Amino acid sequence: MRILVCGGAGYIGSHTVKELLREGFDPAVLDNFTAGRSELLVGGEVIRADLRNRDALRDAMRSGRFEAVLHFASLIQVGESYLQPLRYYSHNLSTSLNLLEAMIESGVKKMIFSSSAAVYGNPETTPISESHPLNPSNPYGWSKLVVEKILQDCSRVHGLKFISLRYFNAAGADPEGRLGEMHDPESHLIPNILLSLLGRRQAFELYGTDFPTPDGTAIRDYVHVTDLAAAHVLALRRLLQGSESDFINLGTNRGHSVLEVIRAVEDITGRKVVYQAGPRRQGDVPSLLASKEKAEQLLGWRPRHSSLEEIVETAWKWHSRMPAGGGAPR
Fold this sequence. Notes:
The protein is of the alpha/beta class. About 40% of the residues lie in helices and about 20% in strands.
C-alpha cells in the first residue's frame, strides 16, 4: 500500500519510514532536504520536492496513487518561532494548505498529522488530556493549532479523515543504530547535552532554574522516537480501517526534569556534564505531562523504549558514532 511521507528524511519521519517498511507498507518520501538528511533515508521512493511548490506537489500526488499521507514537514523550533513568527506562520500554514489542496484534488482523503503538545500552552491540569483547553504560548504552537482547525474544516466539507498526533518530547535514536537526530542547529535537550560531552558544543546551557518544580528546572515527558514511529503506523491502520478523525496525545505520563536528565546522562556515559545556568526561554512552561489513556485505548499503543535510560543510551550510541564534521555515523 502506497503511503506518501512528507518530511520523511527528518528525525521522526525517517524513523516512521523504517517502521512502515517493516510493517509491509510502500512509503514514498517527499522532502526538499533543507532540514531532511539523505543519510536518514532507509528505503522507498524519494521525491525531491518542496511543499511550497504547488505544481510539483500536484504532479507527485497525481502520479503516486497514494492511499494516505503522513505530514511531518514543518519548522519546529519554539524559540526561533518567537523571533521569526511570520516565517513560521507562512511556512507551516502554506505547506499544509498546499498539501491538503493537492490531496483533495487527487482524491486522497486520509492524513496523519504531526502536531505537538505546544497546542495546549501552559497546562491548567496535569497530566494533559486531549480535552484540555487549547491555548498555545508560542507561534510554533499556534501554527500547529491552526492546521488542526483547517483539518477539521476539510473533514467537514471534503470528507477528509485525519488523526492529529500531539507529541510531547521526542527523544532517543533507533535502537539498531541506523537512525538518529541530525538537526542543524540542534535545539533538543538530550542531544545538546551529549554533543557538549563530545566537545562539539560549548558547555551546555541550562535554561531556567527557577521554575515551580521540585528542583527548579523544567519537567518534560520524553517519548522514544521509535515508539512515536510505531504510533504513526497504528494510527494509519486505524484510519485505513475506516475510523473517524481524532486528536491523540503521544506521551508517557512520566516526567523528568532537566537536572534528572543530566544525572542520567552522567550515569550512562560516565562523564561529568558541565553546564551554565541561564534564564528561562520565552514561552517555556514548568511542566508538560501527557495523559496516554486515549492512545492506549484507541491505538493499542504501548511505549516499549521510552525509559529515560534507553532514550539516553540510544542517543549516546548514535551521537558518539557520528563524525565531528557531521554526516552518517561511522
